[in-house]
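Lecture notes, continued. The same structure-token format from the folding unit now serves as the input rather than the output. Read the line below as a description of shape only.
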């Protein structure tokens, strides 16, 4: 049977009462649904927001002038409460949980990436439920993910999930008339026409970020759903092929290297700017080409061998990204030279469509 592995992401607004604080009823309901999935043979990774919101009930936050410090303190204190509360609800179903905190840099180097993947695989094979959140204490400004929807998409790609479920406080993606879009189709739906760029009171990225994550995950072969986290049957419906919400059908399959590279798009540590000749070869769908130093005009940023770098055209257009076989100094020294090993081998090159 094909792998049945679901990443479930729950937004802050779903987990919290309108008056503030975590909602025991919602957490209990989700724990019950996840336990039922597991009993049915599914492996599950939970990505839970809510640390900052939970921290509001723990810390008197009136005294913080610096908003960054305020958020760090609320998250650090709230994460403990969040995990303790999840722990109690999962214990009712004899399920032990484990905490995994991630930051953007964990996806930027292949070494960190493999360590985190190894840990998640270890937790799943030991029968534990990994509960993932962003490490809000160190993730500040440019080091932050857009939000936990993006993190959930990265985790789903990392663990080779078959399904990704983004739970929020609306029924799914709504069209301009407020009607639910049941099945997303890139050909007929226009994201920009549909979405307001707002978020709910506690949310960070809004529907825009859910849509970006869902489309990308579906493109990597992960069936994705955006749905109402307060719907008591939402996970079972998705698992049984009778999803309620907006479904993004999985398109194709991607290798594990390709999933890693795709998840790095937008988070790279450096760039190689290629000349027009190299661009023509790389973007020719009939060819499978590596990025060779002879076709590279400039190297930007600081990176190590094995890190992912962006590939750009000379006018700044992003063509894709790939794993560099040189560090930044070696790459600069090799610029424009013939008969050198590829800067990026085609097996580790991800080109945008
Ligand atoms: N077309 C749309 N369909 C549904 N929700 C939308 C749309 N455009 C904007 N939104 C807003 O996006 C919000 C969900 O994103 P967000 O607040 O980040 O939630 P979460 O905390 O679940 O991540 C919705 O509550 C809604 O206010
Ligand atoms: N890491 C933050 C969540 C940030 C976030 O993306 O929130 P949300 O948009 O509600 O999923 C927290 O735990 O408070």
């Amino acid at each position: 049977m094909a792998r049945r592995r679901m990443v479930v992401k729950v937004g802050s607004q779903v987990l919290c009462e309108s008056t503030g604080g975590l909602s025991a009823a919602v957490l209990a309901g989700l724990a019950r649904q996840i336990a039922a999935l597991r009993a049915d043979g599914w492996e599950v990774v939970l990505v839970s927001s809510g640390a900052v919101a939970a921290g509001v009930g723990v810390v008197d936050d009136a005294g913080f002038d610096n908003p960054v410090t305020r958020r760090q303190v609320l998250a650090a204190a709230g994460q403990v409460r969040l995990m303790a509360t999840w722990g109690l609800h999962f214990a009712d179903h004899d399920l032990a949980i484990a905490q995994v905190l991630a930051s953007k840099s964990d996806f930027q180097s292949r070494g960190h990436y493999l360590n985190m993947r190894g840990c998640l695989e270890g937790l799943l094979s030991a029968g534990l439920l990994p509960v993932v959140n962003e490490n809000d204490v160190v993730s500040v400004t440019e080091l932050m993910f857009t939000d936990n929807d993006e993190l959930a998409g990265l985790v789903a790609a990392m663990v080779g999930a078959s399904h990704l479920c983004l739970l929020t406080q609306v029924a799914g993606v709504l069209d301009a008339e407020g009607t639910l879009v049941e099945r997303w189709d890139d050909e007929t739906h226009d994201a920009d026409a549909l979405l307001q760029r707002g978020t709910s009171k506690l949310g960070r990225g809004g529907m825009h970020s859910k849509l970006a994550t869902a489309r990308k995950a579906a493109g990597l072969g992960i069936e994705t759903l955006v749905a109402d986290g307060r719907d008591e049957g939402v996970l079972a419906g998705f698992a049984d092929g009778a999803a309620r919400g907006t479904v993004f059908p999985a398109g194709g399959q991607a290798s594990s290297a390709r999933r890693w590279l795709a998840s790095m798009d937008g988070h790279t540590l450096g760039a190689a700017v290629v000349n027009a000749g190299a661009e023509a070869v790389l973007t020719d769908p009939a060819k499978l080409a590596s990025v060779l130093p002879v076709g590279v005009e400039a190297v930007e940023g600081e990176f190590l061998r094995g890190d992912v770098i962006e590939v750009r055209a000379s006018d700044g257009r992003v063509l894709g990204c790939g794993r560099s076989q040189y560090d930044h100094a070696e790459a600069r020294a090799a610029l424009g030279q013939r008969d050198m090993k590829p800067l990026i081998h085609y097996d580790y090159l991800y080109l945008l469509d």
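Point for the exam: The CA atoms of residues 131 and 149 lie 14 Å apart.
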